[in-house]
Design goal:
The chain has nine helices and 16 strands. Helix 1 packs across helix 4. It folds into two domains: 230 residues, DHBP synthase, CATH 3.90.870.10; 98 residues, Rossmann fold (3-Layer(aba) Sandwich), CATH 3.40.50.11030. The chain is an alpha/beta fold. The structure holds threonylcarbamoyladenylate (TXA) and magnesium ion. One of its GO terms (molecular function) is double-stranded RNA binding.
Length: 339
Amino acid sequence: MFKIETIEKDRDQLQKAADILARGGLVAIPTETVYGLAANALDPEAAKAIYAAKGRPSDNPLIVHVSAVEEIRPLVTEMPKELFSLAEKFWPGPMTVILPKSRLVPKETSGGLDTVAIRMPSHPVARELIRLAGVPLAAPSANLSGSPSPTCAQHCIDDLDGRVDAIVDGGECEVGVESTVLTLCSHPPKILRPGAVTLEQLSQVLPDVYMDEGVFGQVGDDVKVSSPGMKYRHYSPKARVILVKGDFESFQKFIQVQEGEFGVLCFQGEEKSLPKVCIPYGVNGDPASQAKHLFDALRQVDEDNLKLVYARVSDSEGIGQAVYNRLLRAAAFEQIDLE
Ligand code: TXA
Ligand code: MG
């Protein structure tokens, strides 16, 4: 474990982690969204090791992380002009763009697709590690496949201890949900996964961008999905999660009449008015705070050994769309509407 307080003070530790990456090793690293399980994106064996450590299906492609726009050119066959406008506005930051891949990117990294997902993270530790390793880093979220994404080093230890060569602790993730995934390979461009860079923000650069129908809907095994990640049950605690939509008053009434043992995912401050085991995730009306605490709350559900939780959900706008998208998957689309 390498603990990084500042880039300047902990340069030796960063260099050691970067050396492991350059040699083809696996290192869990902090980013501003969630922790990533990083390896050399251009090394097929390193990419394979990522899938093995996570227990991830090998057709679910990895995101390739770069530290500068020039590093993208050798990875793709085309640099559309929209990419430069997007980069200027949203990079470094929580946005991933899908582009046609070049032969330099092995099929192990792209999950067998002829496209590649690229992101330039803003977390200073992630950026420095890419720079020091001297190669683009493939990094899916550093959780076991199917469990909630990690937002601190302890979550990575819980899931991956003994399965990786090192873990770099860079503190708690600022955003808390994974990046917005946008494809420029379909026309008009579409969002495959909502994140902190919102539909409204992207429309300022891409006026006809839209949200893929799979984002808030259920996709069956027989349906062709735009992004392999959509078809897997995701972000789920072991417990059964049921979403409950409505205001706090109707939620309270609903909870009062439920029988048997269960817990509640609610907003901060609501615990005292609910006679149950409550796990708060962020503040009502503040979706950014909900995003930041969601995955930790979902992990807490299992730590508390709950078998069933009712999760309060509020209106979803902006980054709230990302929160709702993750909750829908955690709940395997089970939802009760009180409105
Ligand atoms: O914030 C993030 O994006 C984090 C941090 C570590 O950067 N990474 C992350 O990676 O969330 P992962 O692997 O957990 O999610 C990547 C998503 C998956 O849903 C995957 O199917 C999709 O991006 N994806 C990757 N490459 C793709 C491609 N070529 N075409 C369509 N979807 C792709
Ligand atoms: Mg993931």
